[in-house]
Every structure is written in structure tokens, then in C-alpha cells.
Design brief:
This protein is of the alpha/beta class. The chain has 10 helices and 14 strands. The mean pLDDT is 92.
Amino acid sequence: MNAGKRPESVLVVVYSDDGQVLMLRRVQPPGFWQSVTGSLRAGESPHAAARREVVEETGFDPTGLEDCRRERCFPIAPVWRARYPGDARYNREHEFRLRRPDTRAPTLSREEHDHARWCSRGQALALATSWTNRAAIRLLPVAPADATVILVHGLWMGSPSMALLAWRLRRAGFAVRLFHYFSTGESPAAAARRLNRMVARCKGTVVHFVAHSLGGIVLAHLFDRGVTGRTGRAVLLGSPMQDCTVARDMNRKGVAWALGAAGWQGLLEERPAWRGEVPVATIAGNRPVGLGRLVARIDGPHDGAVAVRETEVPGAVQAVLPVTHTGLLVNREVVARAIAWLRAGELPGGELVPATEC
């Protein structure tokens, strides 16, 4: 019986000091572009596999290889399933980076790749066939001067609620835009359509997002419409991405009318799943002070309005801090961690939310 390949692999994004990204075109299947990738051998660690694949596929020295300590799961394509053990349906992929001082041409393994190209971040995103590859490219460091951050407020609030956060982000060097929508009279899907037009008008090569509460659901609708090459990373502050106990209890008690269109279509009806190719950090509060406690019994740690478990996004990085739901907008530590994520794709103190498939 053939044991098959391990359903575990590495992805190494090779990029240069000036921000160019190396992309490789596979021999088979035709037109498949990717970063350095490869399966782990028996008894091999992810780090050892990443070093080996860099040498085999590019001829580059792997010194300086960075373990991003992120992993993603994706279904094994039917055309390749015969290579794996009979019960393997999902592959676990470990993310690495290698920074190069220049854009010297790689030495290709002609059995695997027939063409290589150094290209801009946007071009690399357009070429990359795999959504996990695009997610890893979006996590490359971006200078604040090259990015715009769009802030999306929550329920019963307006863009002024994000003013202090906007000021702190501008002090960190980011251009900032505030998106306003009528949270009780406009559905998240309708708000997302208008937000899409704002994104198209933004300056800079990358557009990041920070959303509070219901704003995270607006972003889920935005990315469900499609993800552009300028899309960067997102931070969700207390967004109920899984469920919303408070909204459901309000509905049971006959007062869900106060939630308006946003409540019915955003908090009570099924919302789009988060698109995995958009890297996201979630920051939740566990200080249980807020109006939500007056209308609902919230099980487990919560911020007075949303339970920590309700903020989880499979595959995201999550941090939990001792703040309330509204405190997420003004707390300095929350802002510092959000800035770290937007700058370098790292969330201090964050832990990976496991993907459900793996």
C-alpha cells in the first residue's frame, strides 16, 4: 500500500528589499503561478522543508528564512488527491518568508517550474493562483506611507466614534478615511457596495481596514463581492462574526426593531463567511460592562455586548484584552496592536484561531 505524500506543506514568499515579489510558474498544471512551495518529507520539520525547497526551486541561500508562525488549511484538489493517503482531504500549509537584497534571477528546477518573474505586490496578487498564496503576499510588510486605512464604525454609531482612532493612526503615518453608513437603516450589504466605491477612490498602493462591531460584518459583505489587488489586511474590534447573543435575545423579547436593517440582515440573518485570502486580526474585550447585559445573558467572557467566542474567525489571529465594547475604540493598547498588525502583519500577544477543516 502506498503511504502517499504528507498532507502538510510549506509556502515561502521570496521578496526583495524594494518590495518586489518572486513568482514561479509551474510546469503542471499550465498557468499555475505560485511562490516557493513543497510538501514535508517523512520526519521533516516545516523549517527544514522550507530551507530545502528554497534551495531546490530557486538556488538561493536560505539564510535569513523567517518562520511567520502561521498556517492555513485548504482542500486537496481532486486531480492531486491520489498522491496522498486515502483519507486525506485537507492540506496544512506553513507560511515562511525570505527577504533578498536584490532581484537576481533564480535557478529554476525545470521539472517543476518553467518561468520566474519578479513583480510588484499587486502584480504578484494577480498572478498567484492559490488563495493561501495571496493571503501570504498580503501579509508582507507595508510602509504606512504606502497605505490608506479605512475605518468602519459599528451599530448605533457614526464615523465620529472612530475619530480618536483615526487621529492615532495618522500619527503613526497612515492616511485614514472614515466610512459612514446609516447603521439602523442601511443593510450591511448595501453599505458594502458604497464602501467598495470609496476603496476605488483611495490613494496609496494598499488599502487596510479597521472595523468596530457591526462594521466587521460590513467588511465580510465587501470581500464577499470580491477582493482587489489593493486589498491589504483587516482588524476587527469586537465584531460578532459567529453569532450575536444580544441581538437574538432582543429578537426573542420583541425589541429587535431597534436594530433596524443592520440588525436583521447583519446580526440575525446568516452573514458571509470571511474570505480567507484577506488576513485578519481580531481584538476582543473581556471586561463585562455594557448595555448588552441588560437585555441578554452572555455566556463566557464578553465585553458587555459581544462574547469573545462570537468574535472568532477561523484562521485569524486573535488577542483578548481587558476592555469593554466601546473601550475597544479608545484603549491605547488596542490601537498599538492594531498598528503592529497593519504595519507588519504581526499581532502582539495574538493566538491563531484554528481553521475548522484541520
